[in-house]
Specification:
Chain A has about 475 residues and is α/β, with parallel strands linked by helices. Chain A is about 45% helix and about 10% strand. In chain A, the strands form two sheets. Chain A has an eight-stranded parallel barrel with strand order 1-2-3-4-5-6-7-8, surrounded by nine helices. A two-stranded antiparallel ribbon of chain A has the order 9-10. Chain B folds into two domains: about 15-50, no CATH class; about 80-160, Beta Barrel (OB fold (Dihydrolipoamide Acetyltransferase, E2P)). In chain B, about 10% of the residues lie in helices and about 30% in strands. In chain B, a hairpin with a 2-residue loop joins strand 6 and strand 7.
């Protein structure tokens, strides 16, 4: 019997999409035991945004979270980085990339997942080499997008490159939910065939509402794994629900390992967490053809609208969205993900507000067009190159990591011999002032909870309640202030 | 065999508490709350004080006012010959390539049309601004790190050779 297996994203991408990545370690620990026993093949615990939000907003040491989750979970943990950019959008030297992989392996990460936002797989070379040497399995992602140049043949080429780099898994990642079952019907078999014995995974978001059908198409084409989230944190900008995709797999006759009862408990916990933390649950998105035109994720549009409001330019949003599509064409069809989505949106805003295209070009956009971040999917338009004053000999052709000098000797000298690898890497990524709050001690974590326990703790946080009495079945409780 | 276990009583579920808490929140303006559903009973009494505003209202925020009244002076007149370097967008003005580094230009310095005179950060991206003319920097009107409006004059350059 054919198998289909699941990779959990509830602790990573699900809250990244629905809660602006604000799930704390303390919110995860009480349900880890259930997640571990639910039947997932892998659990994705880390990605760029999780790392960054831990440091900047939650004031948690991200290495400590990785260590704790890997210790507590018997299911192998998966950590995602943006290749040469790791957790940020700048490029790091090879020595920093290698040290990061070594540290993750030491903390207990078993699967090291890497992708590059330009699909320039040269940006994955040093990560893959270091991850393999550190003993982790390697999972190579390629990012799906819609454009005249991102054809099935383009993805077959990327598949071959990843195979040549020696990946253990391969994944089609669809960050904006642009895949349709129809495109899957041609793309998926082509990728599976090119991948040969290497198992293929699907990681697709639900902005179009079509993702469960796309997962179905992937299973039929021979994909082995799907990334999914617990139902309350699935759908909308997030990924599809484990529950729903598992039912689809079972109906198609695949063998899966998911335990429906445990999934129900996990879903109950997260539905409650949404209420307790006053955060949204995922809502099934309605199909909207406009998504396929501008391709800008919903979260980014609401962010842009807010930025335009503060600049008193909100009324020009429709014009700016149209201009984004033209800028994307001029820039050689970058994938609409961070950081390139921001580049296109900002360039389009400048073009519209100034009433003249490319009168001002942000430095990052110019560097992108010169190939500084990696190879472009297509050549930028002549109009853009001329306005940006980019000449043929300005173009960068070598691997981006090639022109960055090693940092570790300098950082070791600055931080002293006693600094651990984690501290050294944090110092490479962040200003010292941002790292100061990370020194505070982590709270005492609870590793189990019950609905009754949650209700009592919640009532305890309500300063306005001076008396509470709870009775159910054979239990009776009274609290008074 | 003797079985001492009581008849299995059903545990409180997450679905139960989601409903209970939802009801408690909806009744936040009452001082007493009693709920009985099936075998579950919840009674609450609130302290007698002005109820706190509902969470939804607290989350309603106004965009922060960014304009600095001190710099909202009426637009001043510049000589016709002066070349004005203006901000391409609402953004943040930086006079130096990085904190602690010397500024791109100082008053009295000569510049070429393609000399970088400052950076305007727009929506988190850095825009190097060129002088746009050959001449001498006469005035720098904006302090480092200040917010600037669309079209705001950043510098005055007197065209020609020094």
């Amino acid at each position: 019997m054919k198998r289909f297996d699941f990779v959990d994203v509830t602790l990573r991408d699900a809250h990244q999409c629905l809660w602006s990545t604000r799930m704390t370690t303390a919110m995860m620990t009480p349900i880890l035991g259930e997640i571990d026993r639910a039947g997932y093949a892998y659990i994705n615990i880390l990605g760029g945004a999780v790392f960054d939000v831990c440091v900047r907003y939650l004031h948690e040491n991200p290495w400590e979270r990785v260590r704790l989750l890997c210790e507590r979970l018997k299911t192998p943990c998966d950590a995602l980085t943006r290749g040469q950019s790791l957790y940020t959008f700048e490029l790091f030297p090879d020595d920093i990339v290698a040290l990061n992989a070594q540290l993750l392996a030491r903390l207990g990460v078993k699967v090291f997942t890497v992708y590059d936002a330009l699909n320039d797989n040269r940006n994955l070379e040093s990560s893959i080499k270091a991850g393999r040497e550190a003993g982790m399995e390697i999972n190579g992602w390629m990012t799906y997008t819609l454009s005249p140049v991102h054809t099935d043949a383009y993805y077959v080429e990327r598949t071959k490159e990843l195979l040549a780099l020696g990946v253990d898994f391969l994944c089609v990642k669809d960050p904006t939910g642009l895949l349709t079952p129809e495109r899957g019907a041609t793309l998926f078999p082509a990728v599976v065939q090119a991948a040969g014995k290497i198992p293929v995974q699907l990681h697709s978001h639900c902005q179009s509402g079509l993702a469960p059908r796309v997962y179905e198409a992937a299973m039929k084409s021979g994909f082995r794994f799907g990334y999914t989230a617990s139902e309350p944190l699935a759908n909308g900008a997030s990924l599809p629900a484990t529950e729903e995709v598992n039912e689809i797999a079972c109906r198609l006759g695949f063998e899966t390992s998911m335990d429906r009862e445990i999934l129900k408990t996990i879903a109950g916990y997260f539905r409650w967490l949404c209420i307790r933390e006053e955060k949204p649950c995922g809502q099934v998105a309605q199909y909207d053809p406009a998504l396929y035109e501008h391709q800008i994720p919903g979260g980014m549009i609401s962010n842009l609208r807010y930025q335009l409001e503060t600049m008193k330019l909100a009324h020009r949003l429709p014009e700016i969205l149209q201009e984004v599509a033209r800028v994307r064409q001029d820039l050689g069809y970058p994938i609409v993900v961070s950081p390139f989505a921001q580049y296109m949106v900002t360039q389009a805003t400048l073009n519209v507000v100034q009433g003249e295209r490319y009168k001002t070009i942000p430095d990052e956009v110019r560097k992108y067009a010169m190939g500084y971040y990696g190879r472009l999917a297509a050549r930028p338009s002549d109009e853009f190159l001329e306005r940006a004053k980019i000449r043929p000999d300005d173009m960068v052709s070598e691997r981006p990591g090639e022109h960055i000098e090693a940092w570790i000797p300098r950082l070791r000298a600055e931080l002293g011999a006693s600094a651990g690898d984690g501290d050294l890497l944090l110092a490479a990524f962040y200003d010292r002032t941002l790292l100061e709050p990370l020194k505070q001690a982590a709270p005492a974590y609870r590793f189990r909870t019950t609905p009754l326990h949650e209700l009592v703790s919640w009532l305890g946080t309500r300063r306005d309640i001076e008396y509470a009495h709870i009775r159910f079945a054979g239990t009776e409780m009274t609290f008074s202030a | 065999m003797c079985n001492h276990a009581r008849v299995a009583e059903r545990d409180l579920t997450y679905e139960d508490i989601v409903q209970i808490v939802d009801l408690i929140k909806s009744a936040s303006h009452f001082s007493e709350f009693r709920l009985k559903v099936g075998d579950i009973e919840v009674s609450l009494r609130r302290a007698d004080r002005t109820p706190s505003a509902p969470a939804a209202v607290q989350r309603n925020f106004e965009p922060a006012a960014t304009a600095d009244p001190a710099r909202q002076a009426p637009s001043r007149a510049f000589s016709d010959a002066a070349h004005l370097v203006r901000s391409p967008m609402v953004g943040t003005f930086y006079g130096a390539p990085a904190p602690g580094e010397p500024p791109f230009v100082e008053v009295g310095q000569s510049v070429e049309p393609d000399s970088i005179v400052c950076i305007i950060e727009v929506m988190k991206l850095m825009n190097s601004i060129e002088a746009g003319t050959r001449g001498v920097v006469r005035e720098i009107l904006v302090p480092d790190g200040a917010g600037v409006e669309y079209g705001e004059v950043l510098m005055v350059i007197e065209p020609g050779r020094p």
